């Protein structure tokens, strides 16, 4: 038994939500495949900033799709 609460399974993603997810996934793949030893400190900061932005957007997306319909804001 897990401690997780039961949530209804969200429906399919909208085109915009899917695009946001795809963008974050691409950013992560690019950062994962990059040779980070070749970046100067400023370049590494940019990589980290892109990953943070992508993570933040994905967390917001998760909130959007798991929030009950009656609590969604217009």
Q: Considering DSSP H and I runs of 4 or more, what fraction of the residues is helical?
A: 55-70%
Supply the number of helical segments. 2
Mean pLDDT: 84
Distance between the termini: 36 Å
- Proportion of beta-strand residues: under 5%
Gross morphology: elongated
Number of strand segments: 0
**Secondary-structure element string:** HH
What structural category do the secondary elements indicate? mainly alpha
The radius of gyration over CA amounts to 16 Å
Biggest sheet character: none
Low-pLDDT parts are: none
Describe this structure in words.
The protein has 2 helices and no strands. With 74 residues, the chain is an all-alpha fold. Helix 1 (15-33) runs antiparallel to helix 2 (41-66). The chain starts with 14 loop residues before the first helix and ends in an 8-residue tail after the last helix.
Short summary of the structure?
The chain is mainly α and 74 residues long. 61% of the residues lie in helices and 0% in strands. The protein has a domain at 15-32 and 39-66.
Which helices and strands appear, and what pairs or packs with what?
Layout: H1 15-33, H2 41-66
List keywords for this structure.
74 residues, mainly alpha
């Amino acid at each position: 038994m897990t401690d997780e609460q039961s949530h209804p399974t969200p429906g399919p993603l909208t085109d915009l939500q899917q695009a946001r997810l795809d963008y974050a996934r691409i950013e992560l793949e690019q950062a994962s495949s990059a040779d980070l030893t070749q970046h100067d400190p400023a370049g590494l900061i940019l990589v980290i900033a892109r990953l943070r932005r992508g993570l933040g957007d994905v967390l917001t997306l998760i909130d959007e799709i798991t929030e009950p319909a009656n609590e969604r804001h217009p």
